[in-house]
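Re: weekly structure request thread

Next one in the queue (110 aa):
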Amino acid sequence: MQKIAIPSEGNRFAQHFGRCPEYTIIETDGKEILNKKVIPNPGHEPGFLPRYLKDLGVDCVLAGGMGRRAKDLFDSNGIKVVTGVSGSIEDGVKLYLEGKLETEEDICDH
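Done, posted below.
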């Protein structure tokens, strides 16, 4: 089983991880989606979100963009980060589960 966190706006990827209105948490088993839950963004404080999501059992983040420092914090919490994802959540998760997504090296620097 795997838990994936996605910065979201409705059923679409939000383009900035920390400033999205909500997160969609997807539980998967292999290529099957078992559960989906939407939670409000608890706030954008440096270093908080990686710990918060780790406490929720998240082991992967799919995002449009993320700063280098945030990515490093997720790495140090054992959470895989894939950036450069856009469009509908369903399509992005499907591509990830099929092994068709790779992180872009163009990490946000603001």
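The domain at 2-97 is CATH 3.30.420.130 (Nucleotidyltransferase; domain 5). The chain has one domain: 2-97.
Next request, please.
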